[in-house]
Specification:
There is one protein chain. Helices cover 39% and strands 25% of the residues. The strands form three sheets. It has a ten-stranded mixed sheet with strand order 3-2-1-4-5-12-9-6-7-8, with helices on both faces. The longest helix has 20 residues. It has nine helices and 14 strands.
Length: 284
Amino acid sequence: MKDLSKTETILVPHDFTQMAEFALLHANKISKSIAKPVTIAHIVKSEKEKKDATRKLTEIAEKNTAEFGVETKTIVAVGNYLTKIGEIGEIVKAALVIMGTHGVKGVQKFVGSYALKVITQSDIPYFVVQNAPSQKGNINNIVVPLDFTKESKQKLFSVLAIAELFKSKVHVVADYESDEFSALALLSNIKYAKAFLTDNGLDYEVHELGKQNNGLIKETVAISFRVQADLIVVITSLDSKLSEFVMGASEQALITNDALIPVMCINPIKGSIGPHGMSIAHGG
């Protein structure tokens, strides 16, 4: 998650649907915790559509401010919906983007192909929600799937920022590996996660999968449901052939989880992780 001191708002793409309203409700709750206003953005295809869209969006913003006491700004822009959101996020210095989706079908439509590329090319974390926030409102339990890859443990830095903010308990779901090399790499990641969470004073539990399991994704969802998770954190994968980060089938499966738990999508930082933190190598 970005340094909050360098961000100015929470961005919510709004297409005047119920899912967008759900995303706005989530944004309201987080806004009050991080003391940042909410910006709702709508993208139109032509200039002639801006006036009507601006009127509708302004009504939504004013109503949101009146009902929830959250400062709500608006942006109406002309362009491609899927690519413009990322551009707006950078312009307004968004701490995160919260968007709604309609399960698998919605992800294929909204978070598929072009939109996924937007997420994987952005430094801004994306919260994907399928439902309104729970009545409790707080993020009490965060679930983090952990595999043997070196990128997997980078999620812990974003988790730390959220867990400290909401006083959350972190649940690490550690995969099982039969391959000797992968098993050693996984063990190293588990040890790192334990040390990192302990050193930062977080309440946590590690759920290590045994040989007989239903796969990391299904087990992550099952454990999330059991611990009443409020958030699942996933990281994009590196496609060695394309040399870029992509949203694979595993990440998409978690985004569309049947438990309707919100999912935060983040991209790996180019660099390595040492015993005390990130060693970042900037590059294109």
